[in-house]
Design a protein that fits this description.
The chain contains 10 helices and 12 strands. Helix 3 packs across helix 4, helix 3 runs parallel beside helix 6 and helix 4 packs across helix 6. The protein has a domain of 165 residues: P-loop containing nucleotide triphosphate hydrolases (Rossmann fold), CATH 3.40.50. The model has no long low-confidence stretch (mean pLDDT 91).
Length: 322
Amino acid sequence: MDLPILSVKGLHTYFYTYEGVVKAVRGVDFSIRKGETLGLVGETGCGKSVTALSIFRLIRPPGRIVKGEIRLKGENLVAKTEEEMMQIRGNRITMIFQEPMTSLNPVFRVGEQIAWVIMLHQKKSAKDAMALTVEMLRKVKIPQPEVVSELYPHELSGGMRQRILTAMALSCSPDLTVCDEPTTYLDTTTQAEVLELLGDLMKKSGSSTLYITHNLGVVAHICDRMAVMYAGKIVEVGKTRQVFKDPVHPYTQGLFNALPNPQKRTAELPSIPGLVPNMIDTPSGCLFHPRCSKAKEICSEKEPAQVTVGEDHEVACWMSPS
């Protein structure tokens, strides 16, 4: 069997603050296969973005990766030097951020910024890099790419800037692309266009994708599998269609119950009571038990391990039908 493109095992990422140790990611396990899109979902503060930054080895003091493995095609990125990681970031693994204006340099033309990435990682001449830049802009369906490449970020719309970031991320044909809620600041129509473009490009390039979002509609539309994250840990993972059809973990069920149903008119949507726990002073046992209507005594005493509940479907819950 081929190695997964990305394999994360036992990842712990902590932040050491004056108030205490924030255990932002605490034992995350998941893998992404070649050409696959994995959706990582959960409430704000569950550790999704910290997981992504850990993959890129971009955790800076007071944070650090305490233990665990992050393997890219079998190579453990945790053991890499910073110099080695600089050759990997933007080349073999890339990220598309949610706000392009904070990712693009406002004082340089967008074409120059893409060309620099190509020149750095593919060792091409400035002329060849610019030619490839124009070709990438054409691939992300930017009209008049030669003209747009000469523009500055502030001269483009939000949707155009997001396409620029997509072109930059895919310019070196990466093994893995991480999308950190890349359509959050776009209107609904532009969101649909960008999502369709991303899905089409990923399929053609064969790049694997980790798509971080809180939008379950997006997950249903573009993700092959999904992983549900709560309080720094994966609580349910499986094929997207299966998880949507039969969510097992009470937290996953709560997320789906909170979705609006156009066929059911209601004055108020159901919500999950309480808040994500303080990751400095966490409750004992399963961290979701204070918010869970199905919690039993064992839930407050011991944290559950992941168990298989179906084909390619795992859940970490004492109430799971394992």
